[in-house]
Amino acid sequence: MSVRRLAEDQFQPATFAFNAENTAFEAATIAKYPEGRQQSAVIPLLMRAQEQDGWVTKATIEYIAEKLSMPYIRVLEVATFYTQFQLKPVGTRAHIQVCGTTPCMLRGSDELIKVCQNKIHHDPFHLNAEGTLSWEEVECQGACVNAPMVIIFKDAYEDLTPERLEQIIDEFEAGKGADVPVGPQNGRHLSAPEGGALTLLDDIKPVRTNLDPKPEPVAEGASVPPADAAHPKDTAPEADKSLKTPVTAPAASASNDKAAEKDAAAAEDKPKRTRKAKPEGEA
Q1: Do strands 133-138 and 94-99 pair parallel, antiparallel, or not at all (unpaired)?
Q2: Would you place residue 184 in the very low, low, confident or very high pLDDT band (cuts 50, 70, 90)?
Q3: What is the separation of C-alpha 165 from the centre of its chain, rounded to a whole number of angstroms?
Q4: What are phi and psi of 21, to 5 degrees?
Q5: Using an 8 Å Cβ cutoff, are 173 and 133 in contact?
C-alpha cells in the first residue's frame, strides 16, 4: 500500500465547520459515549465531514481533534490509516471506486478501469477537467458473485459491462446520479442466479416448522394402538399378549411324574436278595 498523506497546502481550506444538520449529528454522536470515552466518536465524525465536503481536510482533522480533546496526531493517524477516508479532493459528482481483486479481475475489471481512464483521467485520484469526476482502484468490496462492480460514494453498482459503466458515468456527470438504479445492472435479483432460480424447482414437501399450523387432534374415542417401534419382537409363549397368565409346560411335567412312578413300581417288584448262610465250620 502506498503512503497516505494529506493533500498539498494549496488544496487545503483555511477552516472547517459542520453545517446545521451535521452539527446536530455531531452532538448526538458524542452523547452516545460515556464520560471519558468521547474519543470513540472520531470515525463517525470524520466520515460525516467527508460526506459534507467530499474529502477529509487538514482543517477537518484539527476541528475534530479539538472537539474530542484529542492530540492532532491521533486523529491524523485514524484518517491516514483507513482507506475509506479520502485525503485529496475527489469528483464533486462522482468518485468511482473500481474493485480490482481477483473475482472482479477475472470478470473484466480491467476493462472498467480503461473506461475510467478514457472518460475521467488516465491516473487515479486525478480530477477530470471540470472537477466533477475522479476514480481509484480498490480492494474487494464484498460482492464477488456480482463481479465486476464499482462503488460510487455509498452505493454499489454490480454486474457491469464497460458499456454500462460508461452510461453510469455520463448520468453522474449530467447530475442525474440519483436516477441510476443501484445493485445489479443485468436484471438479476440481488445475488440470485441470472435468469432466475435453477435449483429446488421440483415439488418438494416442505418441512413443518413451529410457525405452521399443528395437525388436527385425534377425535375422542378413537383408539390409537401403542407404538411398538422400540420393543423387540419376542415369539416365546410367555410374550403372547392374548394369554392372561404365563404359559407353563404341563406336558413336560406330567411325563416326568409318570417316569418317577414307573421307577418306584419297578423297585417294589424287584425280589430282595438274601444272603446265604455259610455251613458250619467254614470260616
Answers
A1: parallel
A2: very high
A3: 30
A4: -65, -45
A5: yes
Task: Say what the pLDDT of residue 225 is.
Answer: 64
Angstrom distance (rounded) from CA 148 to CA 112:
8
CATH superfamily of 94-184: Glutaredoxin (3.40.30.10)
The CATH number of the domain covering residues in 9-81: 1.10.10.1590
- Return d(Cα 221, Cα 110) in angstroms, integer: 76
Task: Give every CB contact of residue 50 below 8 A, 6+ residues apart in sequence.
Answer: 56, 60, 85, 86
Q: Give the single-character DSSP code of 276.
A: P
pLDDT of amino acid 274: 53
Q: Which three cell numbers stand for residue 172?
A: 453522474
- Which residues, other chains included, contact 6 with Cβ-Cβ below 8 Å and sequence gap of 6+? 12, 57, 58, 76, 80, 87
What SS3 state is found at 118? helix
Average pLDDT (239-253) is 61
pLDDT at 268: 64
Helix pair 72-81, 42-53: axis angle to 10 deg: 70
* Structural domain boundaries in the chain: 9-81, 94-184
- Whose grid coordinates read 458524542? 30
Calpha distance 180→156 (Å, rounded): 11
Taking only Cα atoms into account, the Rg of the chain, rounded to an integer number of angstroms, comes to 47
**How many other C-beta atoms can be found within 10 angstroms of the C-beta atom of residue 30?**
17
Nine cell digits for residue 134: 475522479
* β-bridge pairing 155-158 and 183-184: parallel
